Write a sequence for this structure.
């Protein structure tokens, strides 16, 4: 039986004061950018079944208007994101993107399937020693179902594949090399960690062009990420994000900078039960606000 939103406070007070109590996972500064930005432990502990986000827009001198787009996140065992439905307007028509995930016993993604008006696509991951990613294959499927909304795979076509090599330089430095479908290396990711386990920097280098992206991470006194800065070489352009939290570790807002100039802010608003009520994304150049309101269902 579904519980209404008014039950939020009762459900959450027991675990909101734990180290994993925050709803939004911003451990490496990618909240709202990756598909899964909800804290899996929070989702599982509070028996959240789904989260729906509905979009609004507010322009200067105008009333807030409902947008046609929406997202629905459906969770499975251990708080893992199992399905995601995105409704968006493309070329004047609404299109729904369905994404489904399967996981192995270690909690790593083994299959990701996407469906939209163009068809069905999938990624399959294989893991090796120490559960490190070894290979990723990309497929396109034909659908044996007469309905575009139901997926019954008839035939699969291998489109591309990548392989991954892993090297440990020492206890705090690791390297991942990605090989293309010809078996040739085309990019290298070097990660550096502190002895305490904090991610300090990443260096992404493309083999052929020589282009590099260096990302530097900083943390506050609580160990929550306070900023990350990307430097693109050889151009020297920079992208930076700075984060502020409340005393419970809930993300309050993130400021975004391009070459040192602030471009936009994302603000998070919570209800009394520490659930995310809405986000406000404000573009500073136009002062247009994109608002997303969130709604929850529970087991």
């Amino acid at each position: 039986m579904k519980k209404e939103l008014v039950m939020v406070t009762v459900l959450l007070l027991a675990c909101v004061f734990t180290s994993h109590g925050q709803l939004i996972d911003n451990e490496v500064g990618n909240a709202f950018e990756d598909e899964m930005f909800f804290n899996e432990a929070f989702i599982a502990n509070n028996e959240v079944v789904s989260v729906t986000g509905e979009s609004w827009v507010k322009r200067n001198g105008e009333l807030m208007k409902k947008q046609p787009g929406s997202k629905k996140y459906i969770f499975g065992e251990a708080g893992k994101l199992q399905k995601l439905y995105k409704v968006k307007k493309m070329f004047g028509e609404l299109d729904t993107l369905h994404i489904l995930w399967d996981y192995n016993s270690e909690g790593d993604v083994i299959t990701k399937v996407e469906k939209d008006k163009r068809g069905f696509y999938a990624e399959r991951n294989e893991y090796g020693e120490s559960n490190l990613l070894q290979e990723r294959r990309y497929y396109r499927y034909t659908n044996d179902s007469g309905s575009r909304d139901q997926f019954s795979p008839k035939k699969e076509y291998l489109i591309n594949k990548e392989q991954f090599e892993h090297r440990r330089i020492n206890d705090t430095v690791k390297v991942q090399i990605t090989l293309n479908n010809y078996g040739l290396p085309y990019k290298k990711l070097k990660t550096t960690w502190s002895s305490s386990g904090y991610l300090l920097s990443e260096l992404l280098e493309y083999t052929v062009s020589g282009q590099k992206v260096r990302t530097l991470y900083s943390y506050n006194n609580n160990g929550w990420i306070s900023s990350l800065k990307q430097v693109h070489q050889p151009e020297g352009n920079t992208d930076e994000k700075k984060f502020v939290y409340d005393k419970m570790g809930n993300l309050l807002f993130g400021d975004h900078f391009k070459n040192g100039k602030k471009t936009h802010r994302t603000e998070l608003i919570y209800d009394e039960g520490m659930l995310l009520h809405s986000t406000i994304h404000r573009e500073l150049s136009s002062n247009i606000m994109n608002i997303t309101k969130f709604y929850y269902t529970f087991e």
Observations:
- The domain at 5-298 is CATH 2.40.160 (Porin).
- The chain has one domain: 5-298.
- Confidence is low (pLDDT under 50) at residues 1-20.
- The CA atoms of residues 221 and 247 lie 11 Å apart.
